[in-house]
Design brief:
Shape: elongated
CATH topology of the largest domain: Rossmann fold
Strand content: 15-25%
Number of strands: 21
Strand order of the largest sheet: 14-16-17-18-15-19
Largest sheet: 6 strands, mixed
Helix content: 40-55%
Number of domains: 5
CATH architecture of the largest domain: 3-Layer(aba) Sandwich
CATH superfamily of the largest domain: P-loop containing nucleotide triphosphate hydrolases
């Protein structure tokens, strides 16, 4: 630092002025001007000189407190140390009368701490303004106190009242500490002023939002609130190498549901080349989560995964080594498994443990992708297919239909998407039936690593562990104290075929936990729930058979048979219950008693379930 630090010293008494002048000689970086003035006189001096470009003011006690209230210049108080007070106490040790300590908080607080440490019962009184001093001294005098240890203003008042007074003086070490603190504060303020000038140069571009990175990629400044949350910051950092290759660089990026137009510049600050990003934010044509396209960051997928039953299943452990092997490179992956076997949970694992976990995970759910979403995905300039270095998961790929499957295959191939991003495909198989030729074409074209997800019925030996671990999660979320299953209840769970796999198991366990008021889930509860699941499974089988028959082919009449039920296994339990009940009642000609008997439940239970879903 070339310019000296200008310090204005305001000493409450002559002795401390001498100490300040002596201390300043040891600090060649400090230019000291010192005056003597206590309390209001000290404030007047500060007002007179505060416009003279002083960097810091040094004073003591109540004078420092009053000056600090009326100036924006940093004020450093010469603290009264415990050693200073101890020295004064030694002076008063041989005094035969009662004495007390009186002063502003800078004096009274350390005095009280020392007296407590020494076990002395000396009274300590705190004042906050000069006008309080006389009243405090008169009160002490009435109590028999004839001497006080105090500051300058209290000394004069004590003498007026005929009381003895010893001035609490600061030693050379306290004055030196104040100069050291002044030097540090002044250097910090000078650096802040320089930074403010630097930032004013940046903001001259009048960008609505500005983010500045140093040469190490650390964020120096941001005009955005909570800039560290979401995917914007990792996205900008991933673009910094390109920003450093040219003095100006412009690009478009999507983050957290917004479309950002970004222009970067290089600016030299403190001999470092910084990257300044000017951002213009607009609403992306496709909001996050709409039309089946969703953006996640690593934290969000972590929360989703550990709230999922699949995270406690034995299957996760079995695929862990396969995922680790896959993530040694960035080859595309094809996840193949029945519905409910944890496709997205495995995709989350692959994403979180890959080298691209700092960038977004973008999921494209083909089951939710309507015409608007499809057009955005394939034709919009802000489509995730135009971005780089992300993880993109196409889930339920088999739901696209042949025409769109062929179109997507061509688009991905022509755009080299699998070389620019980590791509995960997910498709649903039917009881180990081979994939269609078109889905096989995806595996061949992009050299996908196929990963088969085993159905729950093949992991029955792990079902006690899976169910028990998940009960722990349910206990925490539902405030229950369930400690397990009756043996017969667990046997029923292991005997069941679980066509809906982990999704179906989670549904049953959730409802069993809600129904149970005892320490163990009973066999009766599981039996009742599995009867409902049987009815749902049978209805779903009828629906699937109908869909595969000529009458269920595309373009056929949409008028359904009275005995046909259209049902999806990913519906909620309540939705499935209602659909099954209505179908059975219809099949029974509206006879609810007969329908309840066929379902294996009472008519009251059936009525309650229908009302709950109405």
């Amino acid at each position: 630092m070339t310019r000296k630090i200008k310090v204005l010293g305001i000493a409450p008494y002559d002795g401390i002025k001498t100490l300040m002048e002596s201390a300043a000689a040891s600090y060649p970086s400090i230019d000291l001007t010192v005056f003597v003035g206590d309390l209001n006189r000290g404030v007047e001096i500060a007002k007179q000189y505060m416009q003279s470009s002083y960097d810091v003011i040094i004073s003591r006690g109540g004078t420092a407190e009053l000056i600090e209230e009326m100036t924006t210049i940093p004020v450093v108080e010469i603290q009264l140390s415990v050693f200073d007070i101890f020295r004064s106490l030694r002076l008063v040790e041989n005094f035969s009368g009662r004495y007390a300590v009186v002063g502003f908080p800078g004096i009274s607080k350390p005095a009280r701490a020392l007296l407590d440490l020494l076990g002395r019962r000396t009274e300590v009184r705190t004042v906050h303004a000069a006008g309080e001093v006389k009243g405090v001294l008169l009160d002490l005098k009435r109590k028999g106190v004839v001497a006080v240890l105090c500051d300058t203003v209290t000394v004069n008042t004590a003498h007026e009242l005929g009381m003895n007074a010893i001035l609490l003086t600061s030693g050379a070490e306290s004055v030196q500490a104040a100069f050291e603190q002044s030097e540090k504060i002044s250097r910090s303020y000078m650096d802040i002023r320089e930074r403010n000038h630097f930032l004013s140069m940046i903001l001259q571009n009048q960008a609505t939002r500005v983010m500045v990175f140093d040469d190490q990629g650390s964020l120096l400044y941001s005009s955005l609130e909570d800039a560290s949350d979401g995917s914007l910051l990792p996205m900008l950092r991933s673009e910094l190498p390109a920003c450093r290759r040219s003095r100006t660089h412009k690009f478009f990026k999507s983050a957290d549901g917004y479309l950002y137009s970004v222009t970067s510049r290089q600016i030299v600050f403190q001999e470092r080349t910084c990257i300044v990003c000017y951002l213009t934010r607009g609403n992306a044509p496709l909001s996050n989560g709409r039309y089946g396209i969703t953006y996640y960051n690593c934290r969000e997928t972590n929360d989703l995964f550990f709230n999922n039953l699949f995270s406690v299943s034995g299957t996760y452990g079995e695929i862990q080594s396969a995922v680790s092997a896959m993530n040694r490179g960035l080859l595309p992956v094809m996840l193949i498994g029945e519905r409910g076997t944890g496709h997205m949970a495995v995709a989350d694992i692959i994403y979180r443990e890959s080298g691209l976990s700092d960038n977004p995970l973008i999921t494209v759910d083909a089951e939710l992708l309507n015409d608007k979403g499809w057009n955005y995905l394939t034709n919009h300039y802000n489509s995730p297919l135009n971005d780089n270095n992300n993880t993109i998961c196409f889930s339920h790929l088999d739901a696209l239909g042949e025409i769109r499957l062929r179109q997507l295959l061509t688009i991905l191939s022509d755009s080299n998407l699998c070389r620019r991003n980590r791509v995960i495909f997910s498709c649903t198989e039917q009881s180990r039936k081979p994939l269609s030729g078109l889905l096989q074409k995806y595996i061949e074209t992009f050299s996908c690593i196929p990963l088969h997800l085993p159905p729950l019925r093949e992991c029955r030996k792990d079902l006690p562990s899976i169910a028990s671990f998940y009960l722990g999660t349910l206990n925490a979320s539902l405030a229950r104290q369930i400690i397990g299953f009756e043996d017969e209840a667990m046997a029923l769970l292991q005997e069941y075929t679980w066509p809906g796999n982990y999704t179906q198991l989670k549904r049953v366990l959730n409802e069993a936990a809600l129904m149970t008021d005892t320490s163990y889930i009973s066999a009766d509860s599981i039996s009742s729930l599995l009867k409902q699941e049987h009815a749902v499974d049978d209805a779903a089988s009828v629906s699937q058979a109908s869909a595969s028959s000529p009458s269920g082919a595309p373009g056929a009449s949409e008028e359904a048979s009275p005995n046909t039920l259209t049902l999806r296994l990913d519906q909620t339990m309540e939705q499935m219950n209602l659909a099954v009940i209505e179908a059975v009642i219809s099949r029974c000609g509206g006879n609810q008693s007969r329908a309840a008997k066929e379902l294996g439940i009472s008519r009251t239970t059936m009525w309650r379930m229908m009302k709950r879903d109405s």
